[in-house]
Amino acid sequence: MNTLRIALLTHSVNPRGGVVHTLELAAALTMLGHDVTVFVPAASGETLFRLPACRVVYAPILLAQADTVAMVEARIDAFRRALIEHDASAFDVLHAQDSISGNALAEMKAEGFIHGFMRTVHHLDHFNDLKLAAWQQRAYQDADQVLCVSDTWAREMQSMYGISAITVSNGVDVKRFSSQPDQHDAQLRQRFGIDGGPIVLAVGGIEARKNTLALLEAFASMRRNVPHAQLVIAGGASLLDHNTYTSRLLQRAGELGLSIGTHESVVVTGPLEDAVMPALFRCADVLSMVSLREGFGLVVLEALASGTPVVASSIAPFTEYLDNTTCCWADPLDVNSIAAALGRALGGRGVDFEHAVPALLARFSWAASAQHHVDVYRRFLAKRALLTH
User: Fold this and answer.
1) Which end of the chain is more exposed for a tag (fewer CB within 10 A), N or C?
2) For residue 267, what are the β-bridge partners?
3) Domain Glycosyltransferase subfamily 4-like N-terminal spans what residues (predicted)?
4) Are 338 and 214 contacting, i.e. CB atoms less than 8 angstroms apart?
5) Residue 207 CB partners (closer than 8 Å, separation 6+)
């Protein structure tokens, strides 16, 4: 089979789920023998948090970003200029992983620079700003083929927007994420003072979508019985503004008598370097993923691969691939339910690491995801060839 020239577009150099997906997919497609280029907007001096084994084009962001709308506009413009400079029409596949890159491709398609593009919808956000909402809509409406990382979102795209999407799932690197400690484990514990009783980990920063306030309440409740427990909130490199929600959480932590800082009851690490993420999962006694809305929840698989039990929201998409043997379920709208699930997970009840977890992880590999993408790409190209002849 002939080699494909594939352009994967991702919105940020920072470690977000969609960006991780892009880089893992790029590496796996390259391993399959395809010619992959990752396009990513970057301010002067910025580089990707992890370099894939393929070509990377940094699209220079030229304008200062006064607010979210200006930031998005500057990144759309950066994508557009870089794609024109690198002759976007020469790629077999142009694949946007987000609304920002999707808008750049939609614009170029309307202008006749390219024949079409594909778009993966990881999840959709709710925007009060009409321009942001319109950009999000255009990025999937103008795509020639939409992909989703879960059946949940594929159904959502069909029922809510009349778009036929194809599910192409995530993967997990079980060589990178494992229960075997390395030099980073002890260093990470010392660096952040992760030295108390059981460690509850949340990855993705402080966001309303991540339901961090409810987790904080549940942790405070749980801590009455486990006084040395620590809540570690890691990550948070988002392009969206979560300052108001973060302020509410910090205020509520004070009201609950929870101190924030290194060695304290709540440790907020901020974005971490990529090399220490496997150690972070290993340092935790439980991962809490009680989000109100997710595209897939990639960190769930990474935690399980690291030997760490998971508490997950009892909602889709988690219910697609998890069950009572691979996680402890919690109602994300019920603080008591979250606290009880954390207790079950910390008590070693509910997660079968001997049989169920290995079977789950075997279902998800980046190699399989990449091959599925290639199959979708080839069907897309064959269909386009028929339409143009």
Assistant:
1) C
2) 232
3) 16-176
4) yes
5) 236, 238, 242, 245
- Distances in whole angstroms, Cα of residue 220 to Cα of each of 165, 175, 236, 268: 41, 35, 21, 15
Rounded CA separation 255/384 (Å): 59
> Counting runs of H as helices and runs of E as strands, what totals does the chain give?
14, 13
- Angstrom distance (rounded) from CA 17 to CA 294: 10
d(CA 5, CA 225): 57
Cβ-proximal residues to 124 (8 Å cutoff; 6+ apart), any chain: 136, 153, 156
Q: Is 244 exposed, middle or buried (0-12, 13-18, 19+ CB in 10 A)?
A: exposed
Contact residues for 109 (Cβ-Cβ < 8 A; gap 6+): 115, 116, 117, 142
pLDDT at 65 > cutoff 80:
no
pLDDT above 80: residue 63: no
**Burial class of 202 by CB neighbour count within 10 A (0 to 12, 13 to 18, 19+):** buried
pLDDT of residue 338: 98
pLDDT class for 1, splitting at 50, 70, 90? Answer: low
- DSSP characters over 31-59: HTT-EEEEEEEE-TT---SS--SSEEEEE
CA distance 72 to 368: 32
Structure tokens at 44: 């002067």
Find out whether the peptide bond into 278 is cis, omega within 30 degrees of 0. no
Q: Give dist(CA 4, CA 144) in Å, integer.
A: 18
Residues constituting the chain: 389
What's the pLDDT band for 271 if we cut at 50, 70, 90?
confident
Q: Please tell me whether the overall predicted TM-score, pTM, comes out greater than 0.90 for this model.
A: yes
Q: Are 327 and 290 in contact (CB under 8 A)?
A: no
Q: How far apart are CA 203 and CA 350, in angstroms?
A: 21
Q: Give the tens place of pLDDT for each residue, 152-186.
A: 999 999 999 999 999 999 999 999 999 999 999 99
* Structural domains in the chain, sorted by start: 5-171+365-387 (3.40.50.2000), 183-362 (3.40.50.2000)
Q: Is residue 166 helix, strand or coil?
A: strand
pLDDT at 241 over 80: no
pLDDT tens across 274-324, in order?
999 999 999 999 999 999 999 999 999 999 999 999 999 999 999 999 999
Judging by DSSP bridges, how do beta strands 145-148 and 165-167 pair with one another? Answer: parallel
